[in-house]
Amino acid sequence: MAHTYSHLYGIPTTGLRFFTVYGPWGRPDMALFKFTKAMLERKSIDVYNY
After folding, report:
1. Quick check: 15 and 2 in contact, CB under 8 A?
2. Contact (CB, 8 A) for 39 and 45
3. CB neighbours of 4 closer than 8 A, spacing ≥ 6?
4. pTM above the 0.90 mark?
């Protein structure tokens, strides 16, 4: 849609995709959330390739 708008009206566009977003809508399988949960529950954190 942005490409079409840019082509029709001659306005350059740039699209951004954020892969690591923290906050209420963050994915629970991300390292930050897993590590925080493990620390709060006093569980060990698995570290691979160390």
Report:
1. yes
2. yes
3. none
4. no
